[in-house]
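Submission checklist for the structure archive. All mandatory fields must be present; incomplete records are returned to the submitter.

[x] Identifier: LacI family transcriptional regulator
[x] Organism: Devosia nitrariae
[x] Residue count: 339
[x] Sequence attached
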Amino acid sequence: MGKAITRLKDIADRTGFSVNTVSLALRDSPRIPQETRQLIREAAQALNYLPNQIAKSLVSRETKTIGLVLTDITNPALTHTAQAIELALAERGYATLFATSNNDPEEEIRVLEVFRSRQVDGMLIYPRSHRKLDHIRRLRNANYPVVLLVGDPDAGIDAVCMDERRGAYKATRHLIDIGHGRIGIIDGGSRLGNLEKREGYQQALKEAGIPYDASIAVDPHGHSVARGYRSMDSLMTVRDRPTAVFAANDSLAIGALRWCQKHGPAVPRDVAIVGFDNIEFAEFAATPLTSVNYAVDMVTELAVERLMSLIAAGDTLPEPRVTMIDPDLVVRESSAASR
């Protein structure tokens, strides 16, 4: 059996005041003298009293909780963003419930249902697929406050996100501008229908008159450093191997960098490497890594503010709005040398 829950009546019995007086005192009502409020608060503390949030939520129709769904808790960029979101929500009096889909579509649907059953006031979601959003669109159509943290402008769902297509374009354009004409890519997003980074990469190649070559486009089947290492091994065994590589996240890029350190190609002299997200490890890698910056603070602030406005709107939500942030490229030693 669990420990008994302290009730208002228990505090009333201990202090000799009525339950109504205790309730008012704990809500800091000016109707109760300050001395009485202090005495009742001390008694509540001694009895380890906690307010019944379930009962309060039935009255206010708010649980003061937000659900946050991640695709992968091991992704440093998502972990950093989750921490920032938790702090931003706490400042506004909200608790955060976390769940991870592990890139499983059925698990994503399940955790959304769990959050709804917990009656969270709204959700912030990194969806597994940026295109297959019918299960989230149904929530939005039912006036449920939801904000995506990756976005499709035509999804019909609120979103605040980095413009991944633009970021990949900038990374590839940078490599072209410093003299590279054979640029490989390590990106598994296409398999999930997340095409933005591949499209940005291809757009930069097309504008420069460089044909797309599928032989130097590798699907890592994951997002880890180890997957990046193995993908770089595949790229560098091609007969006409690339002189530069764009990786869809920094973990993959660090794996590619490690492969070069172990097998001989000098970075950036023999092969330049650019990542995405600008995680802390990128700056402090053995060869500091050029990376597209993921503006955690900006995404967090705008996403939380949008979610708060949806919650405040009540039963009739405003038209969906998608905010896409143009990312900066942070150039470091892994691509600094011109050819």
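[x] Structure attached
Curator remark: The CA atoms of residues 263 and 320 lie 50 Å apart. The domain at 164-294+329-335 is CATH 3.40.50.2300 (Rossmann fold).
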